[in-house]
Design goal:
alpha+beta; BirA Bifunctional Protein, domain 2; nine-stranded mixed sheet; 11 helices; 25 strands; elongated
């Protein structure tokens, strides 16, 4: 049901006083998310639609490189984490059950997936292998902030590759780079793939996917043909600090804030050794499995899209992420010709498979237009008395608030659907 008279979309005229990031302000104002506690956010229906748009893109690209989707628990025994040396991480939630057994709430799933692979993989014939899932993560974040950008609970897609040796790991790593690049391109985001630090994950190398945005807590160092996390760049022998700036091989680096939306790690045998994940080669020799892990945050992609494309009127979604393709606005009261025409157009669009949010509320036109611009669907169609008298519908693309109508109303259902689809596809 996507009639606004019955749809849960609690828009607000003013930003919350504690909101600083653009995405925090607008995602609350547009009725996409609501806070339950520090770092704990609920996704409301329209917001969840956007989140799931991202999930669908990620799933398609993961399947395309041979990933097999599964699901692992958030609540896990502490012992595998103890074996890998990560049980004492400050951000890891720890608890005990009624029997006194030590448990953790997983912030990532290297231990869990390696635990299973150690039991299920025994031969070189079982490799290579790519496993992934979408799952809630829990993190005892000391300073939750910026809406859904830094939270204590979030959903992440994490995938894991398992190979016979380093050469195989590098192949799977390259496959993921290709998949991640395509994911970012399909979302419409501006992004950089930069050299990263392995951090608490460990291993032998890492890259981060960064979306430039003022709200970003990370900084990236940029030059033609070069992009790196600023911390990595500053530690490089190629980079030197001069005053407040940095220079690489004599060329100044541009420093830009960014949101980390994905990260990939070459783990090597960092987890397979302590968790005894091994295989027998064709000669009967035993070897540790080589691993890599790959994370991506749908919520951060959503927030980054808001940050990059919003204007003074509200959100302006890339077409691939918008909660609805069309925001249909009816200006007449129930029983008027314009309302009847809007009802008929709504039925035509829905019947033709176009996802429509229909504003059939009994509100002033200004309020309806303000909500439409705040929510930011790519195409707005408006049915009013004046346009109807001419047999037309007003059409406007949200990006740039560009009028592209009027759109002629016709009894030819297929022609109407084609015309609306063409207008929608003309949006960025």
């Amino acid at each position: 049901m996507t009639r606004l008279s019955e749809y849960l979309l609690p828009t607000e005229k003013q930003a919350r006083p504690d909101a600083e990031a653009i995405s925090h302000k607008l995602m609350v104002r547009a009725g996409l998310v609501r806070q339950m506690g520090a770092g704990m956010w609920s996704w409301l229906p329209a917001g969840w639609r956007v989140h799931q748009r991202v999930v669908a893109i990620i799933r398609e690209e993961m399947n395309a490189i041979g990933g097999q989707e599964m699901l692992m628990p958030v609540l896990q025994p502490a012992e595998p984490w103890r074996k890998t040396g990560r049980l004492e991480i400050d951000e890891l939630f720890k608890l005990t059950d009624r029997r006194g057994s030590e448990l953790v709430l997983a912030m990532t799933h290297e231990e869990a997936v390696t635990f299973h692979v150690a039991q299920l993989v025994s031969s070189y014939r079982d490799l290579p292998l790519i496993l992934y899932h979408f799952q809630v993560k829990e993190r005892d974040e000391p300073r939750p902030r910026a809406g859904v950008l830094r939270t204590r609970e979030f959903i992440m897609k994490d995938s894991y590759s398992f190979d016979r040796d380093q050469a195989g790991m590098e192949e799977r790593y390259a496959l993921h780079i290709g998949a991640y690049d395509r994911i970012m391109q399909r979302t419409g985001l501006r992004f950089y793939r930069v050299e990263g630090d392995v951090g608490m994950m460990g291993g032998v190398g890492a890259h981060e996917y960064m979306a430039p945005a003022a709200a970003g807590e990370d900084q990236i160092a940029l030059a033609p043909g070069y992009a790196a996390n600023l911390e990595v760049a500053a530690a490089s022998d190629e980079v030197e600090q001069r005053g407040d700036g940095f220079v690489r091989n004599g060329e100044p680096l541009t420093i830009e804030p960014a949101i980390e939306i994905g990260n990939i790690f070459k783990l090597g045998t960092r987890y397979s050794e302590p968790l005894d994940a091994r295989y027998l080669d064709e000669h009967g020799q035993e070897h540790a499995i080589w691993m890599a892990s790959y994370g991506i945050g749908p919520a951060r992609i959503v927030a980054a899209a808001v940050e990059q494309f919003a204007d003074e009127h509200g959100i302006s979604w890339p077409r691939a992420l918008a909660p609805f393709a069309v925001h249909l606005v009816a200006l007449g009261k129930p029983g008027t010709p314009e309302r009847e025409a809007a009802d008929e157009l709504y039925a035509t669009l829905v019947g033709g498979g176009i996802e429509v949010l229909y504003d059939d509320r009994d509100l002033a036109p200004g309020e309806k237009f303000a909500d439409a611009e705040l929510l930011g669907c790519p195409l707005r169609l408006t049915v009013g008395r004046r346009s109807l008298e001419s047999g037309e519908v007003e059409a406007q693309l949200r990006r740039g608030r560009r009028d592209v109508g009027p759109l002629a109303l016709t009894d030819d259902r297929d022609a109407m659907l084609r015309a609306v689809d063409e207008l929608w596809r003309s949006a960025p």
